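To illustrate the input format used throughout this study, we show a single complete record. The first block contains the structure-token representation of the backbone; no residue identities are included at this stage. The design step must infer an amino acid for every position from geometry alone.
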């Protein structure tokens, strides 16, 4: 099963422990995670279901491409890493 892990900077704001989930896409994996931890959804996704600007998802170390629909494929042994994007200058 894919495993979702959140950085400690996100965990400061909302409880989101690492968890194994099912799903063939990033979206399916996130939906299953949010079914267990609904408070994390609003921090990661906006009202239309797209990733918030300040959130980045990596699959096996590579940045996810489809930020809107999250249709990037995932497989049983994949690691999803959710983190806050840094900005500023």
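Output of the design step:
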């Amino acid at each position: 099963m894919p495993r979702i892990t959140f950085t400690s900077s996100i965990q400061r704001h909302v409880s989101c422990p690492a968890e194994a989930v099912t799903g063939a896409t990033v979206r399916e994996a996130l939906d299953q995670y949010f079914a267990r931890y609904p408070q994390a959804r609003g921090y990661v996704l906006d009202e239309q279901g797209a990733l918030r600007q300040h959130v980045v998802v990596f699959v096996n170390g590579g940045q996810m491409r489809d930020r809107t629909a999250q249709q990037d494929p995932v497989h049983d042994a994949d690691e999803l890493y959710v983190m806050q994007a840094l900005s500023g200058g």
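Structural context for interpreting the output: The mean pLDDT is 93. The longest helix spans residues 26-36.
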